[in-house]
Amino acid sequence: MDNLDLWKKQMNVRPLFGCFVTFGLPDIAEFTAALGFDFLLIDNEHGVIDQSTLCDMVRASQCEGVPAVVRCTENTYSHVQKALDLGANGVQIPLVNTVEDVVKAVSLSNYVPNGKRGIAYQPRASRYGLTIDKQDYLVKANQSKLLSIHIETVQAIENLDEILTIEGVDVYFIGPNDLSANMQLSSDHPKVSSTIHQAITKITTAGKIAGIFVTDVKSTNQAIEWGARYLVTSITPYMAKGAASYLENVRKIVR
Protein backbone atom coordinates (compact mmCIF):
# COMPACT_ATOMS: atom_id res chain seq x y z
CA MET A 1 0.00 0.00 0.00
CA ASP A 2 3.01 2.29 0.39
CA ASN A 3 2.96 3.24 -3.30
CA LEU A 4 -0.59 4.56 -2.88
CA ASP A 5 0.05 6.78 0.13
CA LEU A 6 0.52 10.06 -1.75
CA TRP A 7 -2.33 9.69 -4.25
CA LYS A 8 -4.59 12.27 -2.60
CA LYS A 9 -1.98 14.99 -3.15
CA GLN A 10 -2.65 14.74 -6.88
CA MET A 11 -5.89 16.66 -6.27
CA ASN A 12 -3.77 19.75 -5.79
CA VAL A 13 -2.72 19.38 -9.44
CA ARG A 14 -5.71 17.89 -11.25
CA PRO A 15 -9.16 16.42 -10.68
CA LEU A 16 -9.29 12.75 -9.68
CA PHE A 17 -11.95 10.48 -11.12
CA GLY A 18 -13.36 7.79 -8.86
CA CYS A 19 -16.09 5.20 -9.10
CA PHE A 20 -18.63 3.85 -6.63
CA VAL A 21 -18.77 0.07 -6.29
CA THR A 22 -21.93 -1.00 -4.51
CA PHE A 23 -21.95 -4.74 -5.27
CA GLY A 24 -20.24 -6.74 -2.52
CA LEU A 25 -17.89 -8.58 -4.87
CA PRO A 26 -14.07 -8.37 -4.93
CA ASP A 27 -14.12 -9.30 -8.63
CA ILE A 28 -16.26 -6.24 -9.43
CA ALA A 29 -13.89 -4.06 -7.41
CA GLU A 30 -10.89 -5.50 -9.25
CA PHE A 31 -12.59 -5.12 -12.63
CA THR A 32 -13.60 -1.52 -11.94
CA ALA A 33 -10.10 -0.62 -10.74
CA ALA A 34 -8.65 -2.18 -13.90
CA LEU A 35 -10.78 0.14 -16.05
CA GLY A 36 -8.50 3.03 -15.14
CA PHE A 37 -10.22 5.04 -12.42
CA ASP A 38 -8.00 7.06 -10.07
CA PHE A 39 -9.65 5.52 -7.00
CA LEU A 40 -12.57 3.33 -5.98
CA LEU A 41 -15.24 4.35 -3.51
CA ILE A 42 -16.54 1.13 -2.00
CA ASP A 43 -20.08 1.78 -0.88
CA ASN A 44 -20.65 0.27 2.54
CA GLU A 45 -23.46 2.75 3.19
CA HIS A 46 -25.88 1.42 0.58
CA GLY A 47 -24.14 -1.76 -0.52
CA VAL A 48 -24.61 -5.09 1.25
CA ILE A 49 -21.03 -5.92 2.19
CA ASP A 50 -19.76 -7.97 5.11
CA GLN A 51 -16.40 -7.18 6.69
CA SER A 52 -14.45 -10.02 5.09
CA THR A 53 -15.75 -9.11 1.64
CA LEU A 54 -15.02 -5.44 2.27
CA CYS A 55 -11.41 -6.30 3.08
CA ASP A 56 -11.10 -8.36 -0.11
CA MET A 57 -12.57 -5.50 -2.17
CA VAL A 58 -10.05 -3.05 -0.74
CA ARG A 59 -7.26 -5.54 -1.43
CA ALA A 60 -8.49 -6.22 -4.98
CA SER A 61 -8.46 -2.53 -5.86
CA GLN A 62 -5.03 -1.95 -4.34
CA CYS A 63 -3.61 -4.99 -6.16
CA GLU A 64 -4.52 -3.13 -9.36
CA GLY A 65 -2.59 -0.13 -8.05
CA VAL A 66 -5.78 1.84 -7.37
CA PRO A 67 -6.51 3.38 -3.94
CA ALA A 68 -9.70 2.24 -2.21
CA VAL A 69 -11.85 4.54 -0.09
CA VAL A 70 -14.68 3.06 1.97
CA ARG A 71 -17.93 4.95 2.34
CA CYS A 72 -18.86 3.98 5.88
CA THR A 73 -22.37 3.14 6.97
CA GLU A 74 -22.26 5.81 9.66
CA ASN A 75 -19.99 8.12 11.62
CA THR A 76 -19.22 5.69 14.44
CA TYR A 77 -16.12 4.07 15.93
CA SER A 78 -16.91 0.57 14.72
CA HIS A 79 -17.41 1.55 11.09
CA VAL A 80 -14.54 4.03 10.70
CA GLN A 81 -12.10 1.95 12.74
CA LYS A 82 -12.83 -1.25 10.86
CA ALA A 83 -12.54 0.30 7.39
CA LEU A 84 -9.14 1.79 8.20
CA ASP A 85 -7.88 -1.35 9.95
CA LEU A 86 -8.75 -3.30 6.80
CA GLY A 87 -6.21 -1.13 5.01
CA ALA A 88 -8.50 1.26 3.14
CA ASN A 89 -6.76 4.36 1.82
CA GLY A 90 -9.48 6.50 3.32
CA VAL A 91 -13.02 6.76 4.56
CA GLN A 92 -16.01 8.77 3.43
CA ILE A 93 -18.58 9.66 6.07
CA PRO A 94 -22.25 10.28 5.21
CA LEU A 95 -24.60 12.79 6.83
CA VAL A 96 -22.06 15.13 8.38
CA ASN A 97 -24.27 18.05 9.32
CA THR A 98 -22.62 19.93 12.17
CA VAL A 99 -19.23 20.97 13.51
CA GLU A 100 -19.62 18.26 16.14
CA ASP A 101 -20.07 15.67 13.40
CA VAL A 102 -16.87 16.85 11.69
CA VAL A 103 -14.85 16.83 14.90
CA LYS A 104 -16.04 13.27 15.56
CA ALA A 105 -15.10 12.09 12.05
CA VAL A 106 -11.62 13.62 12.32
CA SER A 107 -11.10 12.09 15.76
CA LEU A 108 -12.23 8.61 14.72
CA SER A 109 -10.02 8.51 11.62
CA ASN A 110 -6.76 9.71 13.22
CA TYR A 111 -4.34 8.23 15.71
CA VAL A 112 -3.09 10.33 18.61
CA PRO A 113 -2.27 13.19 18.85
CA ASN A 114 -4.70 14.10 16.04
CA GLY A 115 -7.52 11.82 17.15
CA LYS A 116 -8.68 8.81 19.09
CA ARG A 117 -8.43 6.00 16.55
CA GLY A 118 -7.77 2.76 18.37
CA ILE A 119 -4.22 1.49 18.04
CA ALA A 120 -3.46 -2.08 17.02
CA TYR A 121 -0.48 -3.34 15.05
CA GLN A 122 -1.90 -6.71 13.97
CA PRO A 123 -4.49 -5.63 11.32
CA ARG A 124 -3.78 -5.44 7.61
CA ALA A 125 -3.29 -1.64 7.77
CA SER A 126 -0.10 -2.14 9.78
CA ARG A 127 1.05 -5.18 7.79
CA TYR A 128 -0.21 -7.77 10.28
CA GLY A 129 2.32 -6.79 12.92
CA LEU A 130 5.30 -6.70 10.56
CA THR A 131 5.66 -2.91 10.86
CA ILE A 132 8.94 -2.28 12.65
CA ASP A 133 8.85 1.45 13.41
CA LYS A 134 5.44 1.71 15.02
CA GLN A 135 5.65 5.41 15.82
CA ASP A 136 6.49 6.18 12.22
CA TYR A 137 3.50 4.08 11.14
CA LEU A 138 1.14 6.14 13.32
CA VAL A 139 2.43 9.39 11.86
CA LYS A 140 2.29 8.21 8.25
CA ALA A 141 -1.15 6.64 8.70
CA ASN A 142 -2.53 10.00 9.83
CA GLN A 143 -0.88 11.80 6.91
CA SER A 144 -1.71 9.39 4.11
CA LYS A 145 -5.33 8.43 4.79
CA LEU A 146 -8.09 10.42 3.13
CA LEU A 147 -11.09 11.72 5.06
CA SER A 148 -14.07 12.77 2.98
CA ILE A 149 -17.25 14.06 4.58
CA HIS A 150 -20.67 14.37 2.99
CA ILE A 151 -22.36 17.72 2.59
CA GLU A 152 -25.80 16.49 1.60
CA THR A 153 -28.44 18.23 3.69
CA VAL A 154 -29.81 21.74 4.13
CA GLN A 155 -28.41 21.69 7.66
CA ALA A 156 -24.90 20.92 6.36
CA ILE A 157 -25.16 23.73 3.80
CA GLU A 158 -26.27 26.15 6.50
CA ASN A 159 -23.35 25.09 8.72
CA LEU A 160 -20.76 24.97 5.93
CA ASP A 161 -18.86 28.08 7.01
CA GLU A 162 -18.29 26.61 10.46
CA ILE A 163 -17.62 23.11 9.12
CA LEU A 164 -14.83 24.46 6.91
CA THR A 165 -12.96 25.80 9.93
CA ILE A 166 -12.27 22.31 11.29
CA GLU A 167 -8.87 20.95 10.28
CA GLY A 168 -8.30 17.37 9.23
CA VAL A 169 -10.80 16.97 6.39
CA ASP A 170 -9.44 16.26 2.91
CA VAL A 171 -12.65 16.36 0.83
CA TYR A 172 -16.06 17.96 1.27
CA PHE A 173 -18.29 15.73 -0.82
CA ILE A 174 -21.61 17.03 -2.09
CA GLY A 175 -24.35 14.47 -2.65
CA PRO A 176 -26.76 16.03 -5.19
CA ASN A 177 -29.49 13.42 -4.81
CA ASP A 178 -29.68 13.57 -1.03
CA LEU A 179 -29.36 17.34 -1.05
CA SER A 180 -32.16 17.84 -3.56
CA ALA A 181 -34.41 15.41 -1.66
CA ASN A 182 -33.64 17.22 1.58
CA MET A 183 -34.52 20.50 -0.12
CA GLN A 184 -37.74 18.82 -1.33
CA LEU A 185 -36.91 19.73 -4.92
CA SER A 186 -36.12 17.72 -8.04
CA SER A 187 -32.44 17.14 -8.72
CA ASP A 188 -32.58 19.31 -11.86
CA HIS A 189 -34.22 22.27 -10.10
CA PRO A 190 -32.25 25.53 -10.64
CA LYS A 191 -32.16 26.18 -6.89
CA VAL A 192 -30.41 22.86 -6.31
CA SER A 193 -27.81 23.65 -8.98
CA SER A 194 -27.29 27.11 -7.54
CA THR A 195 -26.87 25.74 -4.02
CA ILE A 196 -24.29 23.20 -5.19
CA HIS A 197 -22.39 25.84 -7.17
CA GLN A 198 -22.30 28.16 -4.16
CA ALA A 199 -21.15 25.35 -1.86
CA ILE A 200 -18.31 24.31 -4.17
CA THR A 201 -17.24 27.93 -4.51
CA LYS A 202 -17.27 28.36 -0.74
CA ILE A 203 -15.22 25.17 -0.26
CA THR A 204 -12.60 26.07 -2.86
CA THR A 205 -12.37 29.70 -1.72
CA ALA A 206 -11.48 28.37 1.73
CA GLY A 207 -8.58 26.49 0.11
CA LYS A 208 -10.27 23.09 0.52
CA ILE A 209 -11.08 20.26 -1.91
CA ALA A 210 -14.65 19.91 -3.12
CA GLY A 211 -16.02 16.58 -4.27
CA ILE A 212 -19.30 15.59 -5.88
CA PHE A 213 -21.20 12.68 -7.39
CA VAL A 214 -21.48 12.98 -11.17
CA THR A 215 -23.48 10.94 -13.66
CA ASP A 216 -22.05 11.79 -17.07
CA VAL A 217 -19.53 13.91 -18.96
CA LYS A 218 -21.77 17.00 -18.86
CA SER A 219 -22.20 17.00 -15.08
CA THR A 220 -18.51 16.18 -14.63
CA ASN A 221 -17.44 19.10 -16.81
CA GLN A 222 -19.78 21.43 -14.92
CA ALA A 223 -18.43 20.32 -11.56
CA ILE A 224 -14.83 20.82 -12.71
CA GLU A 225 -15.65 24.29 -14.01
CA TRP A 226 -17.07 25.13 -10.60
CA GLY A 227 -13.86 23.89 -8.95
CA ALA A 228 -14.49 20.30 -7.82
CA ARG A 229 -11.42 18.03 -7.77
CA TYR A 230 -12.84 14.72 -6.42
CA LEU A 231 -15.35 13.40 -8.95
CA VAL A 232 -17.18 10.15 -8.35
CA THR A 233 -19.43 8.29 -10.76
CA SER A 234 -20.95 4.81 -10.46
CA ILE A 235 -20.20 1.69 -12.48
CA THR A 236 -23.80 0.44 -12.30
CA PRO A 237 -25.50 2.81 -14.81
CA TYR A 238 -22.79 2.15 -17.39
CA MET A 239 -23.29 -1.60 -17.05
CA ALA A 240 -27.05 -1.16 -17.39
CA LYS A 241 -26.74 1.20 -20.35
CA GLY A 242 -24.42 -1.17 -22.20
CA ALA A 243 -26.72 -4.13 -21.64
CA ALA A 244 -29.83 -2.16 -22.64
CA SER A 245 -28.16 -0.95 -25.84
CA TYR A 246 -27.07 -4.46 -26.77
CA LEU A 247 -30.50 -5.98 -26.15
CA GLU A 248 -32.27 -3.22 -28.04
CA ASN A 249 -30.10 -3.79 -31.10
CA VAL A 250 -30.09 -7.58 -31.13
CA ARG A 251 -33.85 -7.76 -30.66
CA LYS A 252 -34.27 -5.71 -33.83
CA ILE A 253 -32.67 -8.60 -35.68
CA VAL A 254 -35.43 -11.06 -34.79
CA ARG A 255 -38.40 -8.77 -35.27
Write the layout of secondary structure elements.
Layout: E1 16-21, H1 26-34, E2 39-43, H2 51-63, E3 68-71, H3 77-85, E4 90-93, H4 99-108, H5 134-144, E5 146-151, H6 154-158, H7 160-163, E6 171-174, H8 176-182, H9 190-205, E7 209-213, H10 217-226, E8 230-234, H11 235-253
Parallel strand pairs: 1-2, 1-8, 2-3, 3-4, 4-5, 5-6, 6-7, 7-8
Helix pairs in contact: 1-2
Concise account of the structure shown:
It contains 11 helices and 8 strands. It is an alpha/beta fold and 255 residues long.
Name the helix and strand elements from N-terminus to C-terminus, one letter apiece.
EHEHEHEHHEHHEHHEHEH
Query: What is the percentage of strand-forming residues?
Result: 15-25%
Mean pLDDT rating: 95
Number of helices: 11
End-to-end separation = 53 Å
Q: What does this molecule look like?
A:
It is a single chain. The chain is of the alpha/beta class. It is built from 11 helices and 8 strands. It is globular and about 65 Å long. The relative contact order is 0.12.
